[in-house]
Amino acid sequence: MIKVAVCGALGKMGKEVVEAVLADNQTELAAKIDLNGGDFTSIEAAAAAKKIDVLVDFTQPSSILENAKYCLNNGIKIVIGTTGLSDAQVQELEKLSADKNVGCFIAPNFTTGAVLMMMFAKQAAKYFDNAEIIELHHNQKKDAPSGTAIKTAQMMAEANKNLAAGNCEEVETIAGARGGKSYSDIRIHSVRMPGYIASQELLFGASGQIMSIRHDSMDRKCYMPGVLMAVKHVFEKNDFVYGLEKIMT
Predict the structure, then answer these.
(1) Please, what's the b/e burial string for 12-51 (b: 16 or more CB within 10 A of its CB; e: otherwise)?
(2) 137 catalytic per annotation
(3) For the chain, where are the E strands, in sequence order?
(4) Which is it for strands 198-206 and 209-217: parallel, antiparallel or unpaired?
(5) Which CATH architecture best describes the domain 112-217?
(6) For the whole model, what pTM was predicted?
(7) Considering only CA atoms, which of 193, 196, 194, 198 is closest in space to residue 146?
């Protein structure tokens, strides 16, 4: 059995992870960690009291880097669902994972449908001149743009180095109206509104045609198969992985 600790266990995603770990016949819940209660209020306290093979982190952008560094420095494999890590921070964790020989799995999105959307987007980017991303989340999400949107833009940029071809010089009469410019000049627009969980729409354009790809998450349970897939992968392979698509292909 894989002994799994959940950090952020009392949050909306954390509660779902706890249930998924308890329901799976290959995983055992080692500890619920949360600043607001649970079995332990810190990873350090949980690690001192319990054997932890893999820690799943769904906490806050402000704490994820230090949580991950503590785990990797102390031989605890980690699956990171918290978004907000910068490119430099991801690279730092990749190096630390290799140096310590401790597995680390980071996924901006654990929904298999959303990952397929990203994979389709990379293919589509080869054949279109322009692309923009609209991501829509609940109004309690603290980081913008979403990790899914950033990862999608990165994957599209691998296939096409300029996805704003032919655009005129623009003037924003309201700052930010055109969204944030990301990789390959892809504009990302972030919407925050109650009622959403997580949605993303990709718009592709070329002369005479428009194509859209969209994915909607209506229930947080849809993330759990991907989370468990990542837990089992990092437990067996003990490597560094960024993106669920790396183990879906």
Answers:
(1) ebbbbbbebbeebeebebbbbbbeeebbbeebeebbeeee
(2) yes
(3) 2-7, 27-34, 37-38, 54-57, 77-80, 104-106, 130-137, 180-181, 187-192, 198-206, 209-217, 240-242
(4) antiparallel
(5) 2-Layer Sandwich (3.30)
(6) 0.80
(7) 198
Which residue of the set 141, 151, 215, 233 is catalytic? 141
Concerning whether 138 is annotated as a catalytic residue, the answer is no
Residues 6+ positions from 140 with CB-CB distance below 8 Å: none
Instruction: Sketch the domain layout of the chain as residue ranges.
Output: 2-106+220-248, 112-217
SS3 186: coil
Q: Is 217 helix (H, G, I), strand (E, B) or coil?
A: strand
Alpha-carbon span 220 to 50, nearest angstrom: 28
Q: CB under 8 Å to 113, separation ≥6 — which residues?
A: 215, 217, 222
> What's the CATH number for 2-106+220-248?
3.40.50.720
Compute the distance between CA of residue 247 and CA of residue 138 in angstroms, rounded to an integer. 28
Q: Are 93 and 84 in contact (CB under 8 A)?
A: no
Q: Which of 12, 95, 100, 137 is catalytic?
A: 137
pLDDT tens-digit map of 218-249: 988 999 999 999 999 999 999 999 999 899 86
- Residue pLDDT, tens place only, 106-115: 998 899 999 9
Quick one: CA torsion of 106, 20, 60, 220, rounded to 10 degrees?
Answer: 100
